[in-house]
Write a structure and sequence with these properties.
about 170 residues, 2 domains, four-stranded antiparallel beta sheet, about 55% helix
């Protein structure tokens, strides 16, 4: 964790969007990231994807949060089913319920979060970003509020971005 950089709240992160810019090569992408740093963009809001197709996919956002929620709900349902199907012995064992139910909920939530990052739940934008990185291009993403993103677009264009897209996610690469 960096000292001196303020942490964003969940509420702030939900209000943010991101832009993803493609650059013809690694060097120009790094130059653009340095230019964003000089323009005052915090490092935790700027990301680069170079030669990493999986990371490029994340530029369009992931379904990790939704997957975790669905997984946790499924875990809770499984826990209730075990208590009901386990008969009187299970229902009378409060310690087993108090230990087992949270464990199932956490385990299924974690599995759901991982599943949300899987290629199975891919958006059509994933293929675009994967293709760009596979062809040797580099991506730079910036997250922030609309007015901040306007400033970032100017910096990225100045540094040679070939395309810039707005994404609904507030996540940087």
């Amino acid at each position: 964790m960096r000292v001196g950089l303020p942490m964003r709240s969940v509420h702030e992160a939900l209000e943010e969007e991101s832009i993803v810019a493609a650059f013809p090569d690694h060097e120009r992408a790094v130059q653009a990231a340095h230019a964003l740093d000089e323009a005052g963009f915090p490092p935790d809001r700027v990301g680069i994807a170079i030669e990493n197709v999986r990371q490029a996919r994340e530029a369009a956002g992931s379904f990790s949060a939704a997957g975790a929620i669905v997984g946790a709900v499924v875990g809770a349902i499984v826990a209730v089913a075990f208590v009901i199907a386990g008969g009187d012995e299970m229902r009378q064992n409060v310690v087993a319920i108090m230990l087992g139910a949270p464990a199932l909920i956490l385990a299924f939530g974690a599995i759901g979060a991982l599943a949300g990052r899987a290629k199975v739940f891919r958006r059509k934008d994933y293929a675009l970003y994967e293709g760009l990185v596979e062809s040797g291009q580099a991506l730079v993403s910036v997250s922030g509020k609309r007015d901040e993103l306007r400033r970032a677009i100017a910096v990225l264009k100045e540094r040679g971005a070939t395309t810039i897209r707005l994404e609904e996610t507030g996540e940087a690469l």
